[in-house]
Amino acid sequence: MKKNVLVSVVCLMIVASVICMAGKKIAEAAEESLETQKVSFDLSMHVANVKDQEPAMYAVVQAFMERNPNVNINLYGEETTEHYKKMKMYAQADTLPDVFFNLVTPSRDMAREGKLYCLDDFIVENKLADVMEENMLNTLQVDGHIYGLPYQSLVTGFWYNKALFDRYGVKVPQRYEELLEAVKVFSKNGIVTIANGARDPYSVWGHMSLLVRYGFFDRIDNILAGRDSFNNEDFVRFYGKI
Q1: So what's the pLDDT on residue 21?
Q2: Helix H or strand E segment including 147
């Protein structure tokens, strides 16, 4: 896909997901002018209902096809766990979608096996280095080449049960000290104040975002090299807050 194809890329706060391109069909389409040739490709997402669960991606795709009527994007999705399983199976069978959402670790394996399209030239031609931070460009880098890019912003947080706050007359906290006071009221009434647990990593992205704020990327290299420890003042402060 050369510069004729519009790509919208903005910051991904958690470097856990990328948009990857499978090789042959995209590379062949790049040689054709989008102004004169009909082009169709598949875009696979990790949610069952893209329109409702990934409205930003859905809107971008619809707007792009409206501006480029000779391009058809077959946008579809699958339940998260099932999606990742299928991407692994498709890679083994050389039937990957042309563009797809994936996690970094299996994408690196796919790139090493020659299943993904190298984006180096695409990044240079579209001057993405001028508008993206270096760590965003290096999200999916294998042997010095880039095979995937973050595709949208991500905001994470914690859900709360407003009815419980109303029932016990507790103000929704705006500051950490207010949160501590709310916890005391709920604990006294037998309410579990923070519950966490699910089948996949998405349930802990709120925790991961906060851990990054408390110095994860400043320390992780030294931790892995044995020069630092997870038991450090920054991480202890983080877990104390949680």
Answers
A1: 73
A2: strand 145-149
Which backbone phi and psi does 141 adopt, to 5 degrees?
-115, 130
- The CA distance from 221 to 9, in Å, is 27
**H or E element that contains 37:** none
Query: Is the model's pLDDT at 217 over the cut of 60?
Result: yes
SS3 content of the chain, % helix, strand, coil (to 5): 45, 15, 40
Return the biggest CA–CA distance within the chain.
70
Residue 221 backbone phi and psi in degrees, to 5: -65, -45
In tens, the pLDDT along 78-104 reads 998 899 999 999 999 999 999 999 988
- Mutual orientation of helices 104-112 and 80-93 as an angle, nearest 10°? 0
Alpha carbons 95 and 117: distance in angstroms, whole number? 14
Q: Could you tell me which residues are beta bridge partners of residue 140? A: 148
User: Can you list the alpha helix ranges (DSSP code H) found in 189-232?
Assistant: 205-213, 216-224
Q: Assign 3-class secondary structure to 222-238.
A: HHHCCCCCCCCHHHHHH
Q: What is d(CA 9, CA 136) in angstroms, rounded to the nearest whole number? A: 10
Quote the tokens at residue 100.
């797809």
Are 86 and 93 in contact by the 8 Å Cβ rule? The answer is no
Contacts with 231 (C-beta within 8 Å, 6 or more apart), sequence order:
none
